[in-house]
Amino acid sequence: MTGEDELVQHFITRSNWLRAAVLGANDGILSVASVVIGVAAASTEREPIILAAVASLVAGALSMAAGEYVSVSSQTDIEKADIERERIELEEIPEIELSELAKIYVRRGLTEETAMEVAVQLTAHDALGAHVRDELGINEISQANPLQAALASGGAFLVGGALPVIIALFIAVDEMEVYQYATAILALVLLGGISAKTGGASPLKAILRITFWGTIAMGLTAIVGYYFGISVG
Ligand SMILES: [Zn+2]
Questions:
Q1: In which domain, by residue range, is 153 found?
Q2: What is the pLDDT of residues 108-125, one digit of tens each?
Q3: Best CA proximity match to 114, nearest among 96, 95, 101, 127
Q4: pTM of the predicted structure, to 2 decimals
Q5: How far is the CA of 74 from the centre of ligand 1 (A)?
Q6: Could you give phi then psi for residue 166, rounded to 5 degrees?
């Protein structure tokens, strides 16, 4: 692998991690702020608001980490089973596998002759590696580590969700909804803009999208909290 390939690989891996971290933080901000706004709309006391903030922060981070661990583990299991099946097929039916590989290169635009030559050479060099990469489409970048992914997304949720918890601790209860909404939207816009810019996408589109859906989520929970508050008040 050339220095440039390594740079590209680092960039893709880094941007994958950044995107996962930003998504986790977004979830933390939005779900904790929404819960806090809902409870603040129903309550005039600080204790239940802080309780809801901390409970949703911890529950959200744990479920995010557990969900990520389970989904990445099952993806890893599937990939491992595919690779094992491929290894057995290469042992049992090497000729068929070779022509299958050549067909993949023909579909990618090589002549049949060149495709077969490439398939023969890559098979001689590392048959399983060639099939895993070109037939199964599995590469180092897609092989995430479940525990790392779980810690990253749970940790990102905690960092994002800490913001509404801090606001819940210090802002006056009668201004809680407004401050929660304003600080959450500000943080979401910042994160949305950074991750779009890093990924080379349009920051404006990302900002409008997150502001719209953030407003919907927090607005609806405020309405539910408000009606819940007056019905039990
Ligand atoms: Zn194969």
A1: 3-232
A2: 999 999 999 999 999 999
A3: 101
A4: 0.77
A5: 22
A6: -65, -45
